[in-house]
Design goal:
With 425 residues, the protein is of the alpha+beta class. Helix content is 50%, strand content 15%. It is built from 15 helices and 14 strands. The strands form 5 sheets. Strands 11-6-1-2-3-12 form a 6-stranded mixed β-sheet, sandwiched between helices. The N and C termini lie far apart (79 Å).
Length: 425
């Protein structure tokens, strides 16, 4: 044994001597435990830990193992061992004589490294399963790449087409703040002026995904609400936008109602009409709660499909006994109808391009990464959109300022608690 170890240390490779020693050892083992040896399913023990037992020294094993890992194929010794297993596994154990296989053992010495050994059925089945899993994974990855590419490409083209058209809306300074609970609320502003200059906010809403349900929540703030505007006198909240744009409106909402907003979106009358038509070329299905006429646009009560212009007039109308309260309710109804119809297959298919085009018509600071984050939640929870009007019912009263303006008075603490409870649901 010491001589053999010396040969390994010196790098010699006397395969014949090693094989003769191994063969005599194997014959002796068969003589002593023939039945146990032949009943063994050698096809399940084809790994390097078993191969290690065939070597005289650890150095010889490491040499063969390194060959296996470097070349990704069985070494000469590995292949010969498989052939010996095949001989004993496929021969009747009652008639086997180890000496009869001396020629087979000798022929193994002529096997080269490129020889192939037939794999067992179990090995073939395992290999097929692995290949099948790889094909499925490749298909899923390819599908994801195509979907992401389609969405990103459609969104980019939509924005590009929208921005190529003349627009009066310009980007504004907005120092948005993330809420304490991690929510990134979006301030939605409807501009009631067609020229975009020194205009009061016609619509003030906050879109949130806060709370346990993670469903979209929409808070509408009445534009006649009497509040303190930082740096200005107390007046209607919609004047904050005319005084200092989206940033001052954000500060006013925070100071009076304690709501943080991270991003903003501003849309004027013309842009709203284009946004709706881009998202829903066939119109939006909605159940009009009453008949009305605004700027020559007549709308009949009942279920119908409205294009962008009709939907805008329906949401703007307030020339009745309900005034701003009725308009807030209809604005929320319009938003619910828009969100709920985003789930239709055709809407989902054209959504990337339409969303890009719609946002291209607006002034906003929402990053694309956030669109991707809230997109699924928005579509999933569209039909269950939760709504709240501020001030809430029975917590306000009409009043008149010293300047003769009709306003709505409310208690800030009561409204703040109502909003906090609503967002936490």
């Amino acid at each position: 044994m010491s001589k053999r170890m010396d040969r390994h240390k010196n790098g010699e490779n006397d395969l014949f001597s090693r094989e003769a020693y191994r063969r005599s050892k194997l014959v002796k083992q068969l003589d002593e435990q023939e039945d146990n040896y032949l009943d063994t399913d050698w096809s399940d023990t084809d790994d390097l830990s078993d191969i290690a037992n065939e070597y005289d020294t650890s150095e010889a094993y490491e040499e063969d193992a390194n060959y296996y890992y470097e070349h990704k194929q069985p070494s000469r010794m590995h292949l010969k061992r498989k052939q010996r297993r095949a001989i004993y596994h496929n021969t009747n154990k009652d008639t086997i004589d180890p000496e009869d296989h001396a020629d087979s053992f000798d022929s193994e010495l002529e096997v080269d490294e490129s020889s192939q050994v037939t794999k067992s059925p179990k090995q073939k089945k395992t290999k097929k399963k692995k290949k099948k899993k790889h094909r499925i994974l490749k298909f899923i990855l390819l599908l994801l790449v195509l979907i992401i590419g389609y969405c990103a490409g459609g969104f980019y083209l939509g924005q590009k087409d929208a921005k190529s058209e003349a627009s009066t809306l310009k980007s504004q300074t907005f120092n948005g703040v993330t809420s304490e609970d991690g929510s990134k609320n979006i301030l939605l502003i409807g501009n009631d002026s067609r020229d975009g200059e020194n205009a009061r906010a016609d619509t003030i809403m906050i879109l949130s995904f806060a709370g346990k349900s993670k469903t979209p929540k929409l808070i509408s703030i009445m534009r006649d609400s009497y509040v303190d505007i930082p740096g200005y006198n107390s007046t209607k909240i919609n004047a904050a936008y005319a005084y200092g744009g989206a940033e001052l409106l954000r500060k006013t909402i925070k100071e009076n109602l304690d709501i943080d907003t991270k991003y903003y979106v501003t849309v004027d009358f013309q842009s709203f009409e284009k946004v709706v038509n881009a998202l829903f070329p066939d119109g939006v299905a909605i159940n009009a709660e009453k008949s009305l006429d605004l700027d020559g646009i007549q709308i009949e009560k009942g279920q119908q499909v409205m294009n962008g212009l009709k939907l805008l007039q329906y949401a703007r109308f307030r020339h009745d006994e309900e005034g701003d309260f009725g308009r807030i309710r209809r604005q929320q109804q319009v938003m619910t109808a828009i969100f709920s119809q985003l789930k239709s297959p055709m809407a989902l298919l054209r959504l990337p391009y339409a969303a890009g085009k719609a946002l291209g018509y607006t002034a906003n600071d929402i990053p694309i990464s956030y669109y991707a984050k809230i997109g699924f939640s928005l579509v999933k929870g569209a039909s269950s959109l939760q709504r709240l009007s501020v001030p809430v019912d029975s917590t306000w009263e009409f009043g008149t300022t010293a300047d003769g303006e009709s306003v709505i008075y409310f208690d800030n603490d009561i409204e703040t608690k109502a909003i906090s409870k609503f967002l936490a649901q």
